[in-house]
Structures are given as C-alpha cells and as structure tokens.
Amino acid sequence: MRSLFLRIFLWFWVAMAAVATVLVVSSPFFTRARPGLERWQHASERFLGARLAEAGERVARGELGPVPRPSPPPRDRDGARHVTILTRDGVAVDGGAVSVEVAAFARRVAAAGEERSERSGAFHLAGRPAKAPDGTEYVVVASVRRPPSLVDLLEPGVLAPRLFLLTLLAGLICLGLARHLTAPVASLRGTVRRLAGGDLAARAAPAVGARRDEIGDLARDFDAMAGKLETLVGAQRRLVRDVSHELRSPLSRLGVALELARQRGGPAAREPLDRIEREAARLDELIGQLLTLSRLEAGDQVVVRQPLDVRRVAEEVTSDAAFEALSRGVTVELDAPSALPFAGDEVLLRSAIENVVRNAVRFTAPGTEVKVSLASGSEGLTVIVRDHGPGVPADQLEKVFEPFFRSSEARDRDSGGVGLGLAIAAGAVRAHGGEISARNADDGGLLVTIRLPAPPPITSS
Q1: Which of 140, 10, 122, 4 is CA-nearest to residue 82?
Q2: What number of other Cβ atoms are within 10 A of residue 140's Cβ?
Q3: How far lies 87's CA from each of 54, 100, 125, 131, in Å?
C-alpha cells in the first residue's frame, strides 16, 4: 500500500472503530440499563418469588428435606436455580454445602424478619423467613448463581446499528483528518516534480507555505532551496552563454591570423597551420553547441512550427552522416514512408535527428550499419536510431542525455565527442513537448527513441 493518504485514513479509521467497538460491547458489564439485563432480572424475580412461596409452604408442612427442582426442569439459558432451607445461623437443614454469600444473606434475612432481595449485576438472591409446625424459625433462600448469556447482554439487534453509525462517523472524521494531513504533501510533491522537470520557478502553493506546522516549515524550506537553485543554475547558464559569446571574437581573429600565417609561412608551416585550423574549427563547433544548449535549457529557443516533410530532413541528415562514415566502412540506412508530414521547427528537428545519428555513427562498430526508422500515427511522430556499438551500462542510460556526460572517457576522447550532442537532441525534443529515451538492444548496440506528440490543431477565429 503505497498511498500515504490511504494508510493514514485506514489506520485512524481502524483505531477509532476498534475503540468504539470495545466501548459499546463492554458497556453491558458496567451498567444495568440494558434491555437484556433488565429482562433477565425481572424473570429471575418472578421465578424466585414462586420458588420461595413453594419452599415456604413445604416448611409450614414440616417438610424440611431438599427442595426438589421443578419437573420437568425449566428450559432456562440463565443457568441453574437453587432453593435452600437454612437455619437462622445460615446452616443448610439438609446438611448440604452453601456458599458464604448465601449463608450471610440468610442471616441478614433472619435478622430483618422479612422477605429480602439482593442483586449485584448478574448474581441474584431472594429469601424470606419461614416457620415450621413446631414453631422453629427457618430461612428459605433462592439464588441464581450464573450470569445470563453473553448474547443477552450484548443485544446484537441493538448494538449492530450503533456500531455501524459509530464506524461510519469515525470513517468520515478520519477521512477529513487524512486529507488534511496529505493534501499539502501531494501539492508539494507536484511542485517537486515541476522543479525536477526543469521548471526552476516552481514554488510551493501559498496555502501550504502559510501553514504553521511541520509541513509549512517543509514548504518554506523547499521554496528557499528552489530559489537558491534557480539563482545558481541561472548564474551557471549565463556564465556559459557569456563565455561562449566572448570566445567567438578571439576565434574570428585567430582565423584572420591563420590566413596571414599561411601567406607568410613556407611549405614547412603548412602542416602545423592545418592542425591549428582543424582545432579552431572544433572549438568553433563546440562554442556553437554550448550556445544552442544554453538557449534550449533557458527556454529562450522559440519553436516555430511549420509544415514540413520529416523524411526529407532525415534523408539529408543520413546522407551527410553516411558520407562521414565511409572511412570506417559504416553504412547508414533510412527506413521511412515516402512522405512524412509533420508540423514542427525544422531547425530543431534537424538538430535532434542529426545529433543522435552522428552519435550512433561515432560509436557503432566498423563495418556495421546504423539504421534510422521513422513512423507516424495518431499520437505523433517516432524516430528510432539503432547502432551496433558497445551500448551503455544500464545504470547510465538516463544520464547519456546530460551535458558533458561520458559513459567511457577514453572512447569519447578518441571519437572527439564532448558529450553535448545527445543533450542538445534532448533539449530540442523537449522544446516540442516530446520525450527521448535510450535502451540497449538485445543483440548489442544502442537504440535511441524520439517521440514527438502530434501538434494541436490550428483553430481559426
């Protein structure tokens, strides 16, 4: 049971229902104002009165032996009734054993000289003086020694409605209490998800932050943390953007200086100058990637949706990638319908597909194939890129879309990658409201899947 609300509700409800049940069920043992108990007491009084009268007549006739039970014996759930003839000192005339309670009660009746009845809960005694023909005084005592049946005391017909109403009332109270405790937690959880999804402006709801309890303290601490995080991430993004912009100017001047060096240098300077040109080009590409990633993460990239043929875009990307892969004997195959219309930002879509395909070409084994599959349906567009490389450890599959992440640093250095391609692809996909994921193929290699939702229909006003 994973729901905190459900657990709090059920625990409180069961606890309150159990307490209510114990109180209601045990109440007959602490009060006499129950219908079943009253009926038992009235029936006992009638029975004892009749038995005392019968025993008194026996004493008056001089019959002092044991008082026989009624024949046939009454069908009585309350247990056996006993009638005993005792002397004024509480001794049974027939020599039988009597309890201390009965003997003491007989002496009290003899002292009072009149009929008496005593009861304490379920124990009921009745006695009266009796005189034999020779004038000897005796005491006749009738007693009920066993309590009534538990069913009589509990009165199911009376208790059931009460228990139902109490349980229902307890459930309503616990429902409100559980909702009061878990509603702010659920609200705070939604805010945490927004923050984790990249919305750095996410804050706890005002109603949660205004609470004066531990949950309110948690919400205020969360808002403070989110504010600090937003400040730090914003500063980091501005730093990357500013540094990237500032590096463009020195690179431009480096290009001019490089051309001047080519003109003045001899043949011996050509090879090192070519190396400088290649490294400058790589640096310029890296700066461009950083600026693109910075715009995507900051949400500054405007998505301009226009009708386009995704197959055409994919053909151009795979054609360029196939040319780059010739030196390693790698082929790039496109599997797509003849036309694949979609409404999206062509620049961002091209960037997303190109970065994933180039990543696959970089890491697939020499002499293998990279396959790009496109499909569309009512739910949107799907792009799957599959390579035959070493794949990625399972615990790192979600991290491959993070900036500068490397699953194998040595391999990335050899390939020239810096870990920005898939991060840029993920940003472009998220800008379209889509999602990107990676998994290892069963027979080796990595599959990267891009899912883009169908754009909402354009309504004319």
Answers
A1: 140
A2: 27
A3: 17, 14, 16, 10
Q: What is the pTM of this model?
A: 0.49
In the numeric block, which tokens belong to residue 118? 């005593």
Task: Give the strands of the sheet with 446-453, arranged side by side.
Answer: 331-335, 369-377, 380-386, 446-453, 435-440
Name the token pair of 119.
């009861």
Rounded Cα distance, 104 and 11, in Å:
52
Which residues touch 293 (CB under 8 Å, ≥6 apart)?
240, 403, 420, 423, 424, 427
Q: What is the pLDDT of residues 224-237, one digit of tens each?
A: 898 888 888 777 76
CA proximity to 80, closest of 38, 153, 143, 149: 143
Structure confidence by residue, pLDDT tens digits, 244-301: 667 777 777 887 887 888 777 777 777 888 788 777 877 777 777 677 776 666 665 6
Tell me if 352 sits within 8 A of 450, measured CB to CB.
yes
Residue with structure tokens 């025993």?
55
Structure tokens at 360: 């696959």
d(CA 254, CA 262): 12
- Name the residue with tokens 């009929």: 115
Asked whether the predicted pLDDT for residue 241 surpasses 50, the reply is yes
